[in-house]
Design a protein that fits this description.
The protein is of the alpha/beta class. It folds into 2 domains: 289 residues, Mur-like, catalytic domain (UDP-N-acetylmuramoyl-L-alanine:D-glutamate ligase); 138 residues, Protein-Tyrosine Phosphatase, Chain A (Alpha-Beta Complex), CATH 3.90.190. The chain is built from 15 helices and 17 strands. Helix 13 links the parallel strand 15 and strand 16. Helix 2 packs parallel to helix 5, helix 3 crosses helix 10 and helix 12 crosses helix 13.
Length: 444
């Protein structure tokens, strides 16, 4: 009997979780060999960095498809469904196709499990499913986001033609190191011999690491602020108007339906990556404008409800939290702003709370369904030291936390100057945001 989607979910979740790492490409390489090395059947644009990878991947996907090419896209983690991680021509696999992709690799995965010291992980299995699905489709180009790091990430069994490195900051310190330049060593591993690296602005120490890697393997490099850049950014209704200097031409009057300067910079990386992929040839400006106007980024400064307004942002580290706060101040005028915050216990919770404190009138501390989630009461105790006890609420159930925050946002006494009244920002974790998105109806 053919397995159901629920059966496949259970089978995948029974494997090592994404957070359990054993730094080796041996297992995924063995599995891909058994599958006929599907990752070699198409060119690859690969992305690493601390934040912005998924949004940039989606922008690259739109641009590539505007050029008439068929795309495969692999991103992680997912917000609501595992199927989101593997997309063909911009759309997640259907449940049926996801089951078929699993069936295509399951028997070979068992062979690897039986012969390897450690079994294949959840993430490794999904990577193999994606690469096989892209080859079967077939796609003209695969846009692939690393799961964590770079050199030892399972996606790195593919040799990318273009490697995109978004800004590097500290995250996953337990696995990657506690200094950006240490993390950069691992992330630089996606820059392969003869490839083209598109590099966001970085600290000097990080840039030195990336440039050394490029020189070592003979890769060409395009740097933000030197070879390409964001020229201008103006807030507009429903997003922003931007102008970009690409590798080959200037592109003006681009409407990007996303909020925040960080998304404008992501657009610059995406454009440079696609120009590099097609040989630094100018792209028709109308195609660029059309592609960017179609970009979506679920769970990234996403307005999902009105009266009161509720915004979801999957910031899960201090770098992401700072970007979210800046974008909220730029794009919205909520007063009061109430935070619903649920954070994983292995994150820098204290620093994230300190970043949120100046802009959140009150914070509702909660938790998500993951066993990695910090308990709401413990998060609240930390928050009370930063916000003061009178500004901290606790609700362990996310649905109750959302209800409480929306009620607080509707109380605007003392905030009469606000345009549009109060609002709610749900943040702290991709899982928290994904579960809130389901509770609130899956977005607008």
């Amino acid at each position: 009997m053919k397995p159901t989607y629920a059966d496949v979910e259970r089978a995948l979740l029974s494997r090592w979780p994404e957070t359990k790492l054993e730094p080796s490409l041996d297992r995924i390489s063995a599995l891909c060999r058994l599958l006929g090395d599907p990752q070699t059947a198409y060119p690859v644009i690969q992305l690493t960095g601390t934040n912005g990878k998924t949004s940039t991947s989606r922008m690259i996907d739109e641009l590539i498809r505007a050029l008439g090419l068929r795309t495969g896209r692999f991103t992680s983690p997912h917000l609501e469904s595992m199927t989101e991680r593997i997309c063909l021509d911009g759309e997640p696999l259907s449940h049926e196709l996801f089951v078929d992709a699993f069936a295509d690799v399951a028997a070979y995965a068992q062979v690897v499990d039986d012969t390897a010291t450690h079994p294949l992980s959840f993430f490794e299995t999904l990577v193999a499913m994606a690469y096989a699905a892209f080859a079967d489709s077939p796609v003209d180009v695969a846009v692939v986001e690393v799961g964590m790091g770079g050199a030892w990430d399972a996606t790195n069994v593919a040799d990318s033609q273009v490697a995109v490195v978004t800004p590097i900051a500290v995250d996953h310190a337990r696995y990657l190191g506690d200094r950006p330049e240490d993390i950069a060593v691992e992330k630089a591993g996606i820059i392969k011999p003869g490839s083209h690296a598109v590099v966001a602005q970085q600290s000097d120490a990080v840039m030195d690491v990336l440039m050394h890697r490029a020189s070592e393997v003979g890769a060409s490099v395009s740097r933000e602020g030197v070879d390409f850049q964001l020229l201008s950014q103006v807030t507009a209704v429903g997003g922003q108007m931007i102008a970009l200097q690409g590798l080959s031409a200037r592109y003006d009057e681009i409407f990007l339906p996303l909020h925040g300067a960080h998304q404008a910079h992501n657009a610059a990386y995406a454009l440079a990556a696609v120009e590099a992929f097609i040989g630094q040839t100018e792209i028709d400006g109308d195609l660029v404008r059309e592609a960017f106007s179609n970009v979506t980024a679920p769970g990234r400064l996403e307005l999902v409800r009105h009266s009161p307004s509720v915004v979801l942002d999957a910031a899960h580290n201090p770098h992401g939290a700072a970007a979210a706060v800046a974008a909220m101040q730029e794009a919205f005028s909520f007063s009061p702003l109430i935070g619903v915050v649920g954070i994983m216990a292995d994150k820098d919770m204290e620093q994230m709370l300190r970043i949120f404190e100046p802009v959140m009138a009150q914070i509702v501390c909660t938790q998500n369904s993951s066993d990695r989630s910090m308990q709401a009461r413990e998060l609240a105790e930390m928050a009370e030291d930063i916000f003061g006890a009178d500004r901290v609420q606790t609700e362990s159930r996310l649905d109750n936390a959302l209800e409480k925050a929306m009620a607080l946002a509707e109380v605007t006494e003392g905030h009469e100057e606000a345009i549009g009244g109060g609002g709610v920002l749900v943040t702290g974790s991709v899982v928290t945001v994904g579960e809130a998105r389901v509770l609130l109806g899956g977005g607008s």
